[in-house]
Fold Diaminopimelate decarboxylase.
Amino acid sequence: MEKINEYVAKQQQEVCAFIYDLNSLTEHVQSLLNPLPEAVQFYYAIKANSDEQVLRALLPHVYGFEVASMGEIEKVRAVSETVPIAFGGPGKTITELTAALAHNVTLYHLESQLQMQRLNWLAQEQGKTVEVLLRVNPSFALPDATLQMAGKATQFGIEQSELEGMLSELSRYPNLRVVGFHFHCISNNLQENTQIKAIEKYITTALQWQQQYDLELSTVNVGGGIGVTYQEQQRPFDWSSYCEQLSALLKRFPELNIAMECGRFVSAYCGVYLAEVTDVKRNHGENFAVLRGGNHHFRLPSSWQHNHPFRVLAREEWPYPFTRPELNDAPVTLCGELCTPKDVLAKGVVVERLRAGDIIVFEKAGAYGWHISHHDFLSHPHPQRVYL
Ligand SMILES: Cc1ncc(COP(=O)(O)O)c(C=O)c1O
């Protein structure tokens, strides 16, 4: 907080910034890695925050990086020529797969028969054999979570019944070495017990296929999807209980590597988004604060339709010859500066005091903040992006 105050005190213009604390990021990731069982290969899913500084900070700690595009492959290779890269995503094109081969991607998560055919063909042309996990869209029940990518009709992965039909025909892809399966099924799961149950099901299903189809099976990727609490009443995911349960589970499967590819849980906590209140007003009986910023910088709250957690940083200076509007002990809706009623970051939240010129500090803004937002809509200046 002290560093945020120092930053704010130095600003000459309206404050609008993301501040990322790289020390807290590395301490946090180390605290996640320490209790994990040895068999876990921990990838960081860079889609959550792919800034070079973040990748450099995480590089010495994580096993590898999970990417979902050619651009992300290039970002990873810009910080390391050798770190393992796992390449996922439902839309891998010939152009992307060609670039992936050129950049020595280590593992491909393939999501359809056509992706398998494309990669096999390209690898054959180059005389290479590449390691692959097949991404499964399972038929079995999955835990509840904020977003569900599988276990139902989505564009992700290969449907379980179709996959089972393909497993006896893997020899049709001589340049793909299928070494396991990939299950990224849910996002923002806050319950460690259901996460463990899902992992157990992923592993036992993969082992059953190994036996049934006489497959090589070294790795089961259990995805990311560990949740972050954005609402006060939510109970946080208990990482230490999760690691204990995972250690007990993996003792039953000593031959397997488990890969994880977490994004949100790694980088959410390292960032805050600061936005100055530019106006406070009343409209049709409700209070609104308009911010220098909004969902073109920080789309997460409007995308998930939640009230994003925030603090008010009070500022005493008001060097103008006109009245400073303010609210006291009243509910307020925090809006961005865009010309759309969808630009809302928190709705009807009671604040003790809020004035034009104060600053809203949105917490847990390090993941899926700037990186999922439509930065140039209305051509407002971009926020400053500061790395402590
Ligand atoms: C394939 C895949 N892996 C990993 C992740 C990271 O998920 P999370 O940030 O929820 O951990 C995502 C997120 O969308 C994904 O699509």
Notes: The pocket of pyridoxal-5'-phosphate is lined by residues 45, 47-48, 66, 88, 184, 187, 223-226, 261-265 (CB under 6 Å). Residues 192-213 form the longest helix (22 residues). The first strand starts at residue 16 and ends at 20. The domain at 50-262 is CATH 3.20.20.10 (TIM Barrel).
